[in-house]
Amino acid sequence: MKTGNKIAVVVVSLFFVLLFMLLFYAVFFFKPVKTEKGLNIPANAFLPGEISETHTLTAPDNKPTEKSNAVIDVGAKGVAQGKIIEKYFSPYTANTSYKNIYLKNSTDLKIDLGALFGAKLGFKINKNSSPQVLIVHTHATESYFSGNRDYYTDKDPTRTTDTAKNVVALGETVAKKLNSQGIATIHDKTLHDYPSYNDSYSNAAKTITSYTAKNKDLKIVIDIHRDSIAAGGGDKIKLTKEIDGKKAAQIMLVMGSQSGSVKNFPKYEENLKLAVKIQQKVETMYPGLARAVSLMPRNYNESLTTGSVLIEIGTDANTFKEAEYSAELLGNALAELFKEL
Fold first, then answer.
1. 195-248 pLDDT, tens per residue?
2. What is the pLDDT of residues 124-145, one digit of tens each?
3. Cα separation of 253 and 276, whole Å?
């Protein structure tokens, strides 16, 4: 046999040997992992990746990052898509800080936290009087995990219309705490993001202006949301901080400002005065519960009053129990602060 033919035979033989080995590996080694609940998890589903923070918040002039048809029933089962990674985001690495106040400034504005904290608010809270506080939910259908699990599936909800299991339930917890302390609070439970997510902020603006028109003594508007943080490889981040022996979902104040393309928010500092006081009170009572205040070149409907704040409680990977505990702690801190205002 000629040398060229011999080489060809060897190459073909090696090809078939390699093909046989690949088939053998696929049949006997590449199997799905079985969980205790019988869900099939692909063996390569849990790939490590770099964490990247991706908020779901949007202003009226920005396109949303979620779709309105994402609402599904709580408790659905499905095939795992990735890991749930538990993290703690320290506020103490913020680029601006002052006396238990930590600020992540994502604008081109120069912020003097000391001056803001020392400045008086343009209003006072009156106890046992007409409504002083309004709680709303621009993205009311944002929800949480029903229980602890280290992975999520394609059927796990990030939103639900069930107000006993979404951020509306957390708003009710905060409202009850404030009302019990003599701080008259209205809790609006309108699902502003359902069925149209795109109209969330315009719907919420109508609700807020409706209440402020009818209740002249309303001083503070609190918009309670839930964050969403992704990691590489399709994994999700849950944020927790142990407070008094129990896991709480970390919270974060998100504040808009007149910067960048935002031109209709000249009194943003009035809201920021309140935000830094809230963060300082939360940090003093429950160290580490609050992430750094996030200052953004956005509006978030906060320009509608001079006492508006947006507060995120946990992420879509936190359990409802963790988020509810945070709402209780937040309610405690807000009640203490508002008694001093």
1. 999 999 999 999 999 999 999 999 999 999 999 999 888 899 999 999 999 999
2. 999 878 999 999 999 999 999 8
3. 9
Residue 195: cis peptide before it, omega within 30 degrees of 0: yes
Maximum Cα interatomic distance, the chain, rounded to a whole number of Å: 104
Position 45 pLDDT exceeds 50: no
Q: Which helix (H) or strand (E) holds 173?
A: helix 167-180
SS3 label, residue 40: strand
- The beta-carbon contacts of 14-23 under 8 Å, at least 24 apart in sequence, are none
How far does Cα 274 stand from its chain's mean position?
20
Contact 285, 251 (CB under 8 A): no
In 3D space, the residue among 136, 201, 173 whose CA is nearest the CA of residue 320 turns out to be 173
Instruction: Provide the 3-class DSSP secondary structure of residue 230.
Output: strand
Q: List residues bridging with 92 in a β-sheet.
A: none
**What's the CA angle centered on 115, arms 112 and 116, to 5 degrees?**
85
In DSSP terms, which residues pair with 86 in a beta bridge? 238
Residue 100 C-beta-side C-alpha neighbours within 13 Å: 14
- Phi, psi (5° rounding) for residue 251? -115, 165
3-state secondary structure labels for all residues of 62-96 = CCCCCCHHHCCCCCCCCCEEEEEEEECCCHHHCCE
Least reliable range by pLDDT among 153-162, 186-195, 274-283, 285-294: 153-162
By C-alpha distance, which of 333, 337, 335 is closest to 313? 333
Q: Report the distance separating Cα 284 and Cα 243, nearest Å.
A: 12
CA distance 66 to 71: 10
Q: How many other CB atoms are found less than 10 A from the CB of residue 259? A: 18
161, β-bridge pairs: none
